[in-house]
Amino acid sequence: SATLYIVPTPIGNLADITHRALQVLQDVDLIACEDTRHTGKLLSHFGIGTSTMSVHDHNERQRAQSIIHRLQQGQNIALVSDAGTPLISDPGYHLVTQVREAGFTVVPLPGPCAATTALCAAGLPSDRFAFEGFLPAKSKARIDTLTALMEEPRTLIFYESPRRVLDTLAEVIEVMGPERQVVLARELTKSFETIHGGPVAELREWLLEDDNRTRGEMVLMIGPYRAPEDALPAEALRTTELLCQELP
Ligand code: SAM
User: Fold this and answer.
1) Closest residue (by CA) to atom 16 of ligand 1?
2) Nearest protein Cα to ligand 1, atom 2
């Protein structure tokens, strides 16, 4: 039956497109993309002539119906976003839900994603991590979000904007303290890729030394919460509490 393919595209370096992604983009009847001009450039670079249709945050729900209609006619469709993996801080979630509900197959292709690419070089624990997407735009909401995540035992991954990164780091210092380990991965897979980490207060000072260090696309990672060494483990606290109850 007709299939919707989810196709990741490069996050900078065009050589990161996979053989299978090119094959699928070539073979499908239609490519649904965030921005037809943007994706048009990628397709022409690889000599692919498949037609495109826009599916972005503002028309995704309606476009889902017309995509389902095409699947019913037997057309295969690929979904791409401007860069990286669709659905990951990008459109696609509503489309995939509706296409699955309509009974069609959704085939995901593996490929570039800034979050996992950044994590792999950060030197932060990678056995468990939580992807948080973009932090809220307003400072108060950002502080609330960071406060809720203050004692998160997993590595936290955020997409961040160059305009906001210094404010965000000041808020991380305020909420989680100056010693929390953070890593900033910038311009991944591109010429000016830099991955720099340390205690958050030191990283912020380092960024302030040179405007170039806050330019471009970036992923911010925050290391897991570590209980201070002088704090008693939860189990010890519980035992103490029980002992106190028993004592006269
Ligand atoms: N779907 C994409 C993915 O799979 O990574 C993410 C789309 S989101 C709208 C764009 C954000 O991803 C950027 O603002 C930045 O935080 C991050 N990003 C994308 N490309 C990047 C790169 N080459 N280096 C660092 N961060 C990148």
Assistant:
1) 159
2) 84
Distances (CA, A) of 80 to 54, 91, 200: 10, 9, 35
- What distances in angstroms separate CA 39 from CA 17, 57, 108, 205, 239, one per listed residue? 13, 16, 18, 38, 61
Task: Render pLDDT for 168-215 as a digit per residue (tens, 0 to 9).
Answer: 999 999 999 999 999 999 999 999 999 999 999 999 999 999 999 999
- H-run or E-run covering 53: strand 52-54
Cβ–ligand 1 contact at 116 (below 6 Å): no
Predicted structure pTM score: 0.92
CA pseudo-torsion sign 78, 83, 84, 85: negative
Question: Around Cβ 155, how many Cβ atoms within 10 Å?
Answer: 21
CA distance 205 to 209: 7
Angle at the Cα of 179 from the Cα atoms of 176 and 182, rounded to 5 degrees: 80
